[in-house]
Design brief:
- The complex is a heterodimer of chains A (about 240) and B (about 240).
- Chain A has helices at about 1-25, 205-240, and strands spanning about 35-45, 45-50, 60-65, 65-75, 80-85, 90-95, 95-100, 105-110, 110-115, 115, 120-125, 130, 135, 145, 150-155, 155-160, 165, 170-175, 180, 185-190, 195, 200.
- By secondary structure, chain A is an alpha+beta fold.
- The two termini of chain B are about 20 Å apart.
- Chain B is an alpha+beta fold.
- The radius of gyration of chain B is 25 Å and the shape is elongated.
- Classes of the chains: A alpha+beta (about 240), B alpha+beta (about 240).
- At the A-B interface, helix 1, strand 4, strand 10, strand 18 and helix 2 of A face helix 1, strand 1, strand 3, strand 4 and helix 3 of B.
């Protein structure tokens, strides 16, 4: 019964993790370039149970102590492209990531509302330089054009935007601020189509997330009931069975 | 227990900022030379604990509030001292208190003083030429002579116009983020016209509805998380 208490409690813990991820998705429903996350659950490895005080066989069978949240996965399906007309708004049509230079090295982003800083370089909203094949991109002011294959044109082609995609998309880790890092695996050059004057909407499907939220609440409630049942049974064992 | 609440609360705050900016844009739909603003979001740090951490997000925040410096529609006023810049660029102003300011609004007036009749804005800021000097005009000028005077007006651009500081009344000041003012060689000036607000009502209303929906979803998350915590608290 005490085992049962903890096992049922793992059910509640999973749904709580799921709730955090759902809420993060929902509040980011308006964030440019955001990709929805999901949590994967796994059961704990089973252990073999022994019968207490039984000199003959002992083994009863296997038992798992519940489940846990094993990892979060990001859904990289594309969001809709929305036209804004600003020359510094860039989006990628299809798979691909732009490369930005940050204090901690190169990180990647799906694009968004970039800007030209006071020295004439193309940066993201946090001031990190967007990188082309020749490094930082000196566009001068915001009257540059970007072709579909990433060429940056002011007076002729001055550079080409670096667009990459990893071998294995699950090795991308979100770092916040719309940036991704690569946790293992390699990045390859990808020729995703660059769209200037567009922003990619969040790919969060709010109807799905809300339906999921209802399911999460009910699963949490069901696990809570299981905990209460275990508690009541334990209570009876202590008070009734144990009565002297 | 508190992380979902923080995520939802952060979302509500960010969306509220966007609602405020939209309301301000709509209020200024008829203000000459007004440049609408846009709020952009970004997701926050992802954290995870333990040996094999599951990384979950910590919410959303405002990443930038940018002014959109695209041109507004040009409106005919017929007044000879009204001038609009057709295309990008700003007029240069000398404000007695704030110093050097810039504006798109070309609704100009005459200010007769001891040194001559100066061209000023409605707030009494002096219009400057390309050398930074105040412009004097003939108070009895006709339309053609007025145009000659207007052609002396300096028109400047900045590397990053979105970085200009809004000083109120349609004026902006240079900042470290905007970069320095650069003269525009041959600006296109339109006498007798003023630039209208660049806010488009249909876009603002659509964005307003989306933001309100996102706001109500974030509060629904907060309510549901609270109910779940209530279940945990009421187990015994």
């Amino acid at each position: 019964m005490i085992r049962g208490l903890y096992t049922a409690a793992t059910g509640m813990a999973i749904q709580r993790d799921k709730m955090d991820v759902l809420t993060n998705n929902l509040v980011n429903a308006e964030t440019t370039g955001f990709k929805a996350d999901d949590v994967i659950t796994q059961t704990f490895d089973s252990v073999l149970l022994n019968r207490i005080n039984d000199p003959r066989s002992g083994l009863v069978g296997s038992y798992s102590f519940g489940a846990f949240s094993s990892e979060s996965v990001t859904d990289f399906s594309p969001g809709t492209l929305e036209f804004t007309g600003l020359s510094t708004d860039l989006a990628l049509d299809g798979n691909g990531l732009f490369v930005v230079e940050t204090d901690t090295g190169e990180l990647y982003t799906r694009g968004g509302r970039f800007s030209v800083n006071s020295e004439g370089y193309l940066t993201n909203a946090d001031g990190c330089y967007v990188l082309g094949e020749n490094g930082r991109i000196a566009v001068g002011d915001n009257s540059f054009t970007v072709s579909e294959n990433g060429d940056i044109i002011t007076d002729g082609v001055i550079d080409r935007l670096r667009v990459v995609w990893p071998d294995d998309a699950t090795s991308l880790r979100k770092e916040g601020n719309g940036l991704y890092s690569l946790a293992g695996g390699t990045m390859n050059d990808s020729r995703g189509t660059v769209r200037q004057g567009f922003l990619e909407s969040s790919n969060v499907n709010v109807a799905d997330e809300m339906a999921e939220m209802i399911a999460v609440y009910r699963k949490y409630e069901a696990s809570q009931k299981a905990v209460i049942m275990n508690d009541e049974t334990l209570g009876m064992a202590v008070s009734k069975l144990g009565r002297l | 227990m508190s992380s979902t609440n923080n995520i939802a609360a952060g979302g509500l705050t960010g969306l509220q900022t966007r609602l405020d900016v939209i309301a301000n844009n709509i209020a200024n739909i008829n203000t000459p030379g007004y440049k609408g603003s846009r709020v952009e979001f970004k997701d926050l740090l992802y954290t995870g604990a333990g040996a094999n951490p599951v990384f979950t997000g910590t919410g959303v925040t405002v990443s930038s509030t940018n002014r959109d410096f695209s041109d507004g529609p040009l409106q005919d006023t017929g007044r000879m001292w009204d001038v609009a810049i057709d295309g990008p660029g700003f007029f240069m102003l000398d404000d007695p208190q704030a110093g050097r300011l810039y504006t798109r609004s070309g609704s100009l007036f005459l200010s007769p003083e001891e040194g001559g009749t100066y061209l000023v804005t409605a707030k009494g800021q002096y219009l400057l030429d390309a050398n930074g000097n105040r412009i004097t005009v003939d108070p009895n000028a006709d339309s053609g002579q007025a145009m000659e005077a207007l052609n002396r007006l300096a028109v400047v651009r900045f590397p990053n116009e979105a970085g200009l500081l809004a000083m109120g009344d349609g004026t902006y000041a240079e900042s470290a983020v905007s970069g320095g003012a650069q003269n525009v060689a041959e600006p296109e000036l339109r006498q007798g016209m003023l630039e209208g607000s660049n806010v488009r009502l249909e876009e603002e209303l659509t964005l307003l509805m989306r933001t309100q929906r996102a706001f109500s979803l974030a509060s629904q998350s907060l309510r549901t998380a609270d109910q779940m915590d209530g279940l945990a608290n009421n187990m015994r």
